[in-house]
Amino acid sequence: MSKFSRWIPAFIIMTIIFLFSSRPATSLPDYGFWDTLVKKGGHVTGYGLLSLAYWYAMGFDGKKSWLAWLLVVLYAFTDEYHQSFTPGRHPSLVDVLLFDGGGGASALAATYWFRKISGRKPVKN
User: Fold this and answer.
1) What is the C-alpha to C-alpha distance for residues 82 and 84, in angstroms, rounded to an integer?
2) What are the residue ranges spanned by the domains of the chain?
């Protein structure tokens, strides 16, 4: 597999995140009592998957997991900035650091731990 093709999952997830954050607030569903949980859970899940896609592109190299997390946080900052131009939406530093960065860190830590206990080696590029 080429080095470029390993980045395709990350580009797909970034596009999906971009499309979700492009929706005006008036077009977003309201989940009532569960609204905050569902929407913040979406942040954690989306950016968790993005961190794994970045790390996959880097061959699951344990020494590069921090770089995958950093890319997640940088993308989250740019996405929140983009969201500031979407009607009814606003940027949130809490979303970037707690939900997006936290989701990325949690997914990376869980995957690192799983790969370590299962004896999996880094993927060769």
Assistant:
1) 5
2) 5-25+33-117
Shortest CA distance to 103 belongs to which of 60, 35, 9, 39? 39
Residue 8 and residue 101: Cα distance in Å, rounded? Answer: 21
Give me the half-sphere count of Cα atoms (radius 13 Å) on the Cβ side of residue 67: 11
pLDDT in tens, the chain (125 residues): 688 999 999 999 999 999 999 999 999 999 999 999 999 999 999 999 999 999 999 998 889 999 999 999 999 999 999 999 999 999 999 999 999 999 999 999 999 889 888 887 665 54
**The two three-digit tokens of residue 123, written as one number:** 């993927």
Distance between CA 124 and CA 62 in Å, rounded?
13
Q: CA dihedral defined by 93, 99, 101, 103, rounded to 10 degrees?
A: -170
